[in-house]
Design brief:
Layout lengths: L1 E6 L1 H13 L3 E7 L8 H8 L6 E3 L6 H10 L3 E5 L7 H4 L6 E5 L11 H7 L5 E6 L8 E7 L8 H25 L5 E2 L13
Parallel strand pairs: 1-2, 1-4, 2-3, 4-5
Antiparallel strand pairs: 5-6, 6-7, 7-8
Length: 199
């Protein structure tokens, strides 16, 4: 399976490192521009990719970038803490779709900083591996992990167990993604909740 990764932060670094350790083929990597990047240089180094396969995540929809991605012939995109909304032209380049590791129990708390809002709003917390569609965190769910949050938790405490849960979801379910769209459910199907979109 040929993977194109879109990663930021510690969890992005963990996932890229794990994928390489499993012998997965990472053909391209998109990172945030330097001003928005967290651990970007570490992620680039962990990917083992040459500079011509590293992409500026803020410009993935321009024609030149799209052509470069097409030339890499990726099968699946893997997004982890990536801060840009992926649009139709980019999404259409992946025969087996793009999956996103989202730090919330969808359909609760879509968008940015969902781990914070699960504490503030007292909504269920967790992590979701889901397909990316044209909406914001609305694609079909591959798997979910619930993370308990106590009334005294803060953002840092909530991130720690959730981070472990999110990382465990990747190895368990990327195999299903490689076989095709084995999604469990739609992110909003059958639920009546006040989801937040804060991007």
């Amino acid at each position: 399976m040929r993977l194109f990764c879109l990663c930021n932060g510690q969890l992005g670094l963990n996932v890229v490192t794990w994928l390489r350790e499993q012998g997965e083929t990472i053909v391209g990597l998109a990172v945030h521009p330097p001003a928005r990047r967290r651990l970007g240089e570490d992620i680039i180094m962990a990917s083992g990719l040459p500079p011509d396969r590293i992409f500026d995540g803020s410009g993935l929809e321009d024609d030149a970038s799209l052509a470069r991605v097409v030339a890499l012939a990726p099968d699946v995109g893997v997004s982890v803490l990536f801060g840009y909304i992926l649009r139709g032209r980019f999404l259409s380049l992946f025969p087996r779709g793009v999956v996103n590791l989202h730090p919330a129990l969808l359909p609760y708390n879509r968008g940015a900083y969902p781990n914070v809002w699960s504490i503030v709003d007292r909504t269920p917390a967790g992590a979701t591996l889901h397909y990316v569609d044209p909406g914001v965190d609305t694609g079909d769910i591959v798997t979910q992990v619930t993370v308990p949050v106590s009334p005294v938790d803060n953002r840092r405490v909530a991130l720690s167990p959730a981070g472990g849960g999110r990382l465990r979801a990747v190895p368990r379910d990327l195999a299903a993604v490689s076989r095709g769209r084995g999604a469990a459910s739609a992110a909003g199907a059958g639920r009546h909740v006040a989801s937040r979109c804060r991007r």
